[in-house]
Amino acid sequence: MRLIALLILLIPGVIAVLGIKLIRDTLFGIFHPVFFHIGIQFVAGILFIIGGLAFIGGFIVHRDRKRNLTKK
After folding, report:
1. Cα separations in angstroms, 3 against 6, 7, 10, 43, 69
2. For 17, which of 26, 42, 57, 70 is 20 to 30 Å away at the CA?
3. Cα 72–chain centre separation
4. How far apart are CA 10 and CA 26, in angstroms?
5. Run of H or E residues at 34
6. For residues 6 and 42, what is the distance between their CA atoms, to the nearest angstrom?
7. Residue 71 forms part of a structural domain
8. In a domain, 34, yes or no
9. 56/61 Cα distance (integer angstroms)
10. Cα–Cα distances in Å, from 60 out to 4, 11, 52, 57?
11. Owning domain of residue 24
12. How far is CA 10 from the centre of its chain?
């Protein structure tokens, strides 16, 4: 069961890391041809970071609420 939870958290973690890489590449002027404009690449990086961290945070809050570890 723990292995499945690790795999569920690994994918959004990789997406968040990809978002950090996209923002770093944008700041250093490295353009990926998948995106049409460097500004779109920056926004996509921010969305990847927010989405990945939100999923991981939601997963942890859901687990803690299920085990009654959060305050009411």
Report:
1. 5, 6, 10, 32, 22
2. 70
3. 28
4. 24
5. none
6. 28
7. no
8. yes
9. 9
10. 14, 15, 13, 5
11. 2-66
12. 10
| Residue whose entry in the numeric block shows the structure tokens 């958290």 | 9
Q: If you search the block for the tokens 């299920």, which residue do you land on?
A: 66
Instruction: In whole angstroms, give the CA distance from residue 4 to residue 11.
Output: 11
| SS3 (DSSP) at 31 | coil
Domain count, the chain: 1
Per DSSP (E only), the strands in 1-72 are none
Cβ distance 26 to 42 under 8 Å? yes
The pTM of the full predicted model, rounded to 2 decimals, is 0.85
Rounded mean pLDDT for each run of 10 residues along the chain, 72 residues in total: 88 96 95 92 96 94 90 78
Residue 28: predicted pLDDT: 95
Phi/psi class of residue 57: alpha, beta or left (left: φ > 0; alpha: ψ in -120 to 50)?
alpha
